[in-house]
Design brief:
Elements (H helix, E strand, L loop, with lengths): L6 H30 L7 H12 L4 H11 L9 E9 L3 E9 L2 H14 L3 E2 L9 E9 L5 H11 L3 E4 L6 E5 L4 H10 L6 E8 L3 E2 L2 H16 L3 E6 L1 E2 L7
Parallel strand pairs: 8-10
Antiparallel strand pairs: 1-2, 1-3, 2-9, 4-6, 4-7, 5-6
Length: 243
């Protein structure tokens, strides 16, 4: 039996992963502050990015510095929002949301990723019509379904989805109602494990076997890229495809 990674090796890997997460969050804070102002009270996108930063244990000093750079109080990098669309193996639709300071580099990296794992980069609008924007509050298995459902309905959520395979629960909202519903759920003592505005497919496409493995490799590769903020797909994958 082979030896697992050393404690030092594992720590280095965790630090690298944490660094990538911080990089993505700082870029999101920067763009949110630049487009909607540096006051989170009047900027829901910035407030959401700050919440994500704090839940990832980012210090308030780092957050404030990112906001000041974005609003011109400190010198900073100007990031551009770009969305790429394409297909993974098996006809799986993929959306890649990026924040970059170098469009040429980013499109080359994204195109390379699709090609490397048997997919292809499409044109603007080629798959976006299959998705819609929603707010999602996710609760892990074992959460109180009745209490969550009651609070979500009272808060004005659009839907509550319970996953029978593991008992996890998602509360679905419109993007406009997301902040209000999240605050109401928190006030009811129901802190979500994950809370975000994201893209969800109208219908999923099943992938199995080797195709599923290639899809997972592509999605993971894209998610690990520094310029990529989020990856969305309509893949319906078996649980063991991620192992």
């Amino acid at each position: 039996m082979g030896r697992g990674p050393s404690i030092e090796g594992r720590k280095n890997a965790e630090d690298a992963r944490r660094g990538k997460i911080f990089t993505k969050i700082i870029r999101e804070i920067s763009v949110a502050a630049r487009s909607g102002g540096g006051d989170p009270a009047g900027n829901p996108r910035l407030r959401s990015a700050i919440d994500k930063a704090l839940s990832s244990n980012m210090s308030k000093d780092v957050i404030e510095r990112a906001i000041k750079k974005a609003t011109g109080e400190l010198e900073g990098v100007d990031y551009e929002e770009i969305r790429y669309e394409g297909y993974a193996p098996g006809g799986i639709a993929v959306i890649v949301d990026c924040l970059t300071d170098n469009r040429v580099r980013t499109v080359a990296d994204v195109r390379h990723a699709f090609g490397k794992f048997g997919g292809n980069l499409g044109t603007e609008g080629s798959v976006a019509f299959m998705f819609h924007k929603v707010g999602v509050l996710s609760y892990a298995a074992g959460a109180d379904e009745e209490k969550i459902t009651e609070a979500a309905i009272e808060a004005g959520a659009d839907d509550v989805v319970v996953y029978p395979e593991d008992g996890a629960i998602d509360v679905i909202t419109s993007p406009d109602a997301f902040a209000e519903v999240k605050a109401a759920m928190q006030a009811a003592g129901l802190e979500p494990g994950i809370a975000e505005i994201t893209m969800r497919a109208d219908n999923d496409t099943k992938a199995e076997g080797e195709t599923a493995q290639q899809v997972v490799k592509l999605l993971r590769w894209l998610e690990d890229m520094d310029d990529v903020q989020a990856v969305h797909s309509n893949a319906d994958l078996p649980a063991d495809a991620w192992t």
